[in-house]
Backbone:
């Protein structure tokens, strides 16, 4: 997993598509969804960590 697109594809596998038009809000919602998948035991810890890292980096990049 290397890009936000990869995170979107991961969420899509579980039937989740997020788009509300505000990029930062989209990323924050994706982060919440990834956390829920991890807490439910549906994704591995390494997948969770990489997805969260990518999302948080992108959020910080956009807030500058």
Residues:
């Amino acid at each position: 997993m290397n890009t936000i697109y990869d995170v979107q594809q991961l969420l899509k596998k579980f039937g989740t598509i997020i788009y509300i038009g505000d990029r930062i809000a989209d990323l924050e919602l994706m982060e919440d969804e990834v956390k829920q998948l991890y807490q439910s035991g549906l994704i591995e810890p390494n997948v969770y960590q990489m997805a969260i890292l990518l999302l948080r980096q992108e959020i910080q990049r956009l807030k500058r």
Q: What stands out?
A: The radius of gyration is 11 Å.
